[in-house]
Specification:
CATH topology of the largest domain: Nucleotidyltransferase, domain 5
Helix content: 40-55%
Number of domains: 2
Strand content: 15-25%
Oligomer: single chain
CATH superfamily of the largest domain: ATPase, nucleotide binding domain
Number of helices: 10
Number of strands: 11
Length: 309
């Protein structure tokens, strides 16, 4: 029995789906982050390897049965990075057909055929879409140092800076500020480093909980985030001339489903900006979609052996 592997790799985790030629999921695997921009090429390849080994061990199949794999990896948009990952995986899976692409590519594939868009609201923020002819466009994804407006990192940073400023001006902590300091493990804002970008996404759950509890400052932060994410949707929609036609829009990322207020505000804004969009979640996981793409690599005699997008 020949099988394939599909990977969805991000900054904090890598998910793997092991699938047979009948499109049945045989096993699942999981490991640490594999975004090469954040963890480096070597660690990215090692995380993919660990996720694969976890799935293979669960399935009890022989590793030689892996005929193809597709890895959708955040940060693999540059050709040289994708090629480095491909080279590393070729050593681990000799003879297997390989496809290396980005996490957004497999997410868009998960939505299905036809005009579609994916809005990723997580540590970073990015929208990617496809028109009826297959032409693609994206907006955002600039990274926490230069942008990612509306992302968890952006919300966390703005929340911390606003709480710190309030304390400096008044000498008093806001309720949200106290919760943020507790999450940071700081006794005061004197310990807070504005250049420690890794901590900002960890503050989003605090803002989300405060929002649903009715905190006005937290609600303003997430209302603004919904506005900024909607701007990404509008940019892609305009680039692909999707304004006057129906298309599917799938939301994904750690911010989605975490806060009822934010989910509602985001949907309202997207509906207003894109009334023809059918908004929902991904019908299958990105890793599942990656496995289906891997199956295409072995579906016919003319199938490519190695590729990257």
């Amino acid at each position: 029995m020949r099988c394939v592997l599909g990977f969805d790799g991000g900054g904090t985790k890598t998910e793997c789906v092991l699938m047979d030629e009948e499109k049945s999921v045989v096993a699942l695997g999981r490991s640490g982050g594999s975004n090469p921009v954040r963890v480096g090429i070597e660690q990215a390849v090692d995380s993919i390897k660990q996720a694969a080994e976890s799935a293979v061990l669960e399935s009890r199949i022989d590793r030689s049965s892996i005929a193809a794999l597709c890895a959708g990896i955040a940060g693999a948009g540059k050709a040289e990075i994708a090629e480095s990952i491909r080279a590393g995986l070729a050593k681990l899976f000799p003879g297997a057909a390989l496809k290396i692409c980005t996490d957004l590519d497999i997410a868009l594939a998960a939505v299905g055929d036809g005009p579609a868009m994916v809005l990723n609201a997580g540590t970073g923020s990015i929208a990617m879409g496809r028109d009826a002819k297959g032409r693609q466009s994206r907006a955002g994804g600039l990274g926490v140092h230069t942008g990612d407006e509306g992302s968890a990192a952006d919300v966390g940073k703005k929340a911390a800076l606003a709480a710190k400023l309030h304390y400096q001006q008044t000498g008093e902590e806001t309720p949200l500020g106290k919760q943020l300091l507790r999450q940071l493990g700081h006794a005061s804002w004197k310990e807070f480093r504005e250049d420690n970008f890794d901590v900002f996404p960890r503050l989003f759950p605090v803002v989300a909980n405060a929002t649903d509890a009715g905190d006005a400052a937290a609600r303003k932060l997430l209302s603004d985030a919904a506005d900024q994410l909607t701007l990404l949707v509008k940019q892609v929609m305009n680039d692909l001339s999707l304004c006057d036609q129906p298309f599917r829009l799938a939301k994904m990322g750690g911010m989605i489903g975490r806060c009822a207020f934010f989910d509602r505000e985001l949907d309202l804004r997207i509906h207003a900006a894109a009334p023809n969009a059918v908004i929902g979640l991904l019908p299958v996981s990105p890793a599942h979609a990656a496995a289906l793409l891997a199956l295409q690599l072995i579906s016919g005699p003319g199938s490519p052996r190695n590729s990257h997008a």
